[in-house]
Amino acid sequence: MPTYDIVEEGADNTGDTAIDSVLDDLVGSDTTIVFPSGTYRLNELVVPSGMDNLELVAPNGARLVPGRSGDDVRWLEVSSRGFVLDGFELDMRNTEVPPFVRMNSNSGNWELKRLVTRGKVRAATDTNVGSNDSSDARTYFRLSADAGTRGLIQDCYFHEGACEPDEASNRRAVLVESGSGKLLFNRCWFEQWAENTIYAKKPAGAVKVYNCFFRNTQNGMRLGGNSEVNNTVSIKDAQHARQAWSNGSLQRGVNSEATVPTDLSEGIDSYNGTLIVVNSDFYHRYPSSSCGGAITAPHPCQNIIISRVRISYDSTKNHDAIYTHEGQMNDGSPVNLESLRLQNVHVRNDHDSEYAVFIGEEPDTWGTVSGVLGGTAAATNSSYVRNRMTIDGDPDPPVTEPALPSPPPLGEVPMQSAKVVRIDNTGNSSESTFEIEGGDLVLPSGDDGATVNMGWARPLSARRVPNSTQAKGTIPPGEVYAFYVTGGIESTQGSGPATWTVDGEPFTPGTTLATKSFTADQPEEDAWRRAGTGVPETRVVVMKPLSYNGGEPCHTRLRNVEDGSFQYKLEEWEYLGGTHTTETAHMLAVQPTEREVPLGDGSTYSVTAGTVTVDDSFSTVSLGDFFDAQPVVLTKSQTFNGSNPIVTRVREVSQGSFDVRVQEESGLNGHVTETVGYIALEQATGRLDGEPFEVGRTGMNVTDEWYRVDFQQQYDSPRFIADMQTFHGLDTAELRYRNLTGTGVEVKVEEEQSGDEETGHATETIGYAVFEGAN
């Protein structure tokens, strides 16, 4: 699959010259075109049928600017399969009438991801206020997909809308055109659209609205049957823009509109199927007729399910918070509501003259009816509902936190730093389990056809930002799940046959080599801090050397290493005061077992870890025949059986064994036995779980003078762990480091001075490991 850097191919990334001629020469089937950061002026891109699997990606974000302006001008039109547009700002700030984007009904399996629109998206007909001509309406994104395919619009922000709240426009955000394919909106943000927001009542294909956010925007979601709204928030609490052609303003939440007669040959079916609204929240409280009901069905589709929904409602509009009416198709034929479920529905209604739940059309069959209706206004006109819900109760309030981050600032694109964790259980006959913990967020994604897992976290609050930090569950045979993780992958666990990747590179769940950075001071001698390894099971933990902010000899000491956590302190020697200034140390935690870990190049990497009970005499630890060459051995006491300060020392490291002991300060002997943890690592340089790492040894040239270690790779935020591999200097000593950068570090051997002032130390060999900590 050819990959091109569009700048290297001659495109201008300053925005001065259109890139069309360069882009037209590069586009083709099975082609990836990479856009480095910059601004690109584009007049038009048409991707014809048959030009499949074309991807335009900006890994670090880039900006696209329209080269043309005008009514019904197309900017991007796709008729092919597998098209991807990922990682762009769509900059309309200086375009008077922005062009439209269209994925037409011949397209399929397309993905529009991590896009943010900058500036208002106005229409040429905006001045036709009160024309009463609906043909004045214009669309920004026109979306469809062919039968048997899917379209994904994910992490897309339409938050600046069509115009200011006190203005009128004829521009809608999204029109889902007729088609039989499935459309999935995942984490999209909408505000201040004037004509409509998502207009999707006609398509025969399924429409899914997951994890989205709507605030002060015209008409919300207009849907037919075969639609689902899940974990979505709708807020109406201020003025929003008017629809120009009608000069009206109305925000509903979800509106069922079975008005177009079925014609499957044209991809039209607004009635058949089920409209599902689940795990969603509606805060519609604004004293204006522009504040519509939360879930309305003036033209009900075949079946409606409303479950685990919370609504707070107050308005002057003649809408109930939830209602069904006896509707009809455009041709005058009636629609019939076959079934209705109102399960665990909570509504606070403070409207002066309307109901919390109004049933104008009774369903043929009632599903479960339960929940709580409260507030100062009428509860329901339906005896069936009244007899099954709590009336005049205290309903749960809406959870108004969005399920996606706030819009990114200018110059950034959504989820720009996210890692993509993919769990693939296709080709397997049994389920697999997964657990992911992120530093900031863990959110489900539909990348490359993955199923968007909507049960990734419980309770509901754990699916909203900023609380969505974990994903946990089971993946059935034949399925693929994917998750965006920001703030770094803190830990993973998994069982079963599924294969894992991170950003396309092989990944082993369980985080074989878990690293973290710790910065702390020592306010008093006996002050211990609790820390987590990032993984739930017990690990061998090595946390050394210490930085060199304070000149007094010091090292880390551990205890209670168990169940994914440990305690640590900065330990000075007995002859010193016990307090110490702020220092940084990096931790490496490894399961006590032998492992062969896959690397990014397809090879395997050897690592083993364990514990041994030792005192101040050397004990030999066998590594068997696991390693093919001399490894690097890192050691650290895991216990605090003796209160005298200690370090661990290593010697005679070979392919099959090494010696280890604990060492007290000069003049103190006979330390009690401690459990010492060891991690033995194959010497290598490469990529592990998608990130650079290296493990190596210096020559026998590290003394009490600072010594520079140059890394073999570049790191954004390196984590450095090291230990002496020799015992040439007999005086008690430990390593310290300074000037740690992405290209290297300085280290030295630091002796303690309890016996004399002299700190000169014989040459030693050190072994070290470097891991990327930025992600």
Structural class of the helices, strands and pairings? mainly beta
Low-confidence stretches: none
Largest sheet: 11 strands, parallel
The rounded distance between the terminal residues' Cα atoms is: 28 Å
Summed over residues and divided by their number, the pLDDT gives a mean of: 95
Describe this structure in words.
With 775 residues, the chain is mainly β. The strands form ten sheets. The chain has an eleven-stranded parallel sheet. The two termini are 28 Å apart. It is elongated and about 100 Å long. A hairpin with a 5-residue loop joins strand 47 and strand 48. Helices cover 1% and strands 46% of the residues.
Q: What is the secondary structure topology, with strand pairs?
A:
Blueprint: E1 3-5, E2 14-18, H1 20-26, E3 31-34, E4 39-42, E5 45-47, E6 54-66, E7 74-78, E8 84-91, E9 100-103, E10 110-118, E11 138-143, E12 150-158, E13 168-169, E14 171-176, E15 182-191, E16 198-200, E17 207-210, E18 213-215, E19 221-223, E20 227-230, E21 233-236, E22 242-243, E23 254-257, E24 274-278, E25 281-285, E26 295-299, E27 303-314, E28 322-324, E29 339-349, E30 357-359, E31 365-374, H2 383-386, E32 390-391, E33 419-424, E34 432-438, E35 441-445, E36 470-475, E37 480-486, E38 489-495, E39 499-502, E40 505-507, E41 513-522, E42 529-532, E43 540-547, E44 554-562, E45 565-572, E46 580-590, E47 594-598, E48 604-614, E49 619-622, E50 632-637, E51 647-651, E52 657-663, E53 674-681, E54 684-688, E55 691-697, E56 707-710, E57 718-724, E58 733-738, E59 744-751, E60 766-772
Parallel strand pairs: 1-3, 2-4, 3-6, 4-6, 5-7, 6-8, 7-9, 8-10, 9-11, 10-12, 11-14, 12-15, 13-22, 14-16, 15-17, 15-18, 16-19, 17-20, 18-21, 19-23, 20-24, 21-25, 23-26, 24-27, 25-27, 26-28, 27-29, 28-30, 29-31, 31-32, 43-58
Antiparallel strand pairs: 33-37, 33-39, 34-36, 34-38, 35-37, 39-40, 41-46, 42-45, 43-46, 44-45, 47-48, 48-53, 49-52, 50-53, 51-52, 54-55, 55-60, 56-59, 57-60, 58-59
